Amino acid sequence: MGAAAGLGAAIGFERQWIGRPAGTRTHLIVALASATFMLVSTQFVFFQTYGKDDLVIVDTSRIAASVVSGVGFLGAGVLFRTGIGIQGITTAASLWLAAAIGLAAGGGMYELAVAATGTALFALIVLRRLKGRRDTCTRGESSSCSRMTARRGKP
């Protein structure tokens, strides 16, 4: 649960840093809740009292599947329509990923959870900076654009 909380908070911190509505606390709670659901779904059978000859069939994927659906509602809450555009889609996607990271950490797949967090932070931080440079050049607002456009073959 600690891994889920820490990794979810890392993604949320980036979202909060750039002023998005769902930040550190929201992502931490989503990841922690997902990890808790995963632990409950995989461990609850051990806390039940069954007879020696009772046949027990457990489908642990049912709770995890419900987490995916439930987080969709949270993601919808951070989407805003502005004219013909939509804002908040990256934050909604990062909430969905925080849920997946929580499920992975709750299932004991720490390497997967860390890898997903690292990839998400790369996408959120590095790729946003690259996109910002491209957008600035498209609007002609930067002197460094001549170097970028020259590499792409544009005047």
UniProtKB/TrEMBL annotation:
Entry's transmembrane regions: 28-51, 63-81, 112-130
Subcellular location: Cell membrane
Record keywords, A-Z: Cell membrane, Membrane, Transmembrane, Transmembrane helix
Membrane topology: Multi-pass membrane protein
Major localization listed first in the record, in broad terms: membrane
This protein's GO CC annotations: plasma membrane
InterPro entries: MgtC/SapB/SrpB/YhiD_fam, MgtC_SapB_SrpB_YhiD_N
Family of the protein in this entry: Belongs to the MgtC/SapB family.
Species per Swiss-Prot/TrEMBL record: Fimbriiglobus ruber
Name of the featured protein: Mg(2+) transport ATPase protein C
Every MgtC/SapB/SrpB/YhiD N-terminal domain range: 2-131
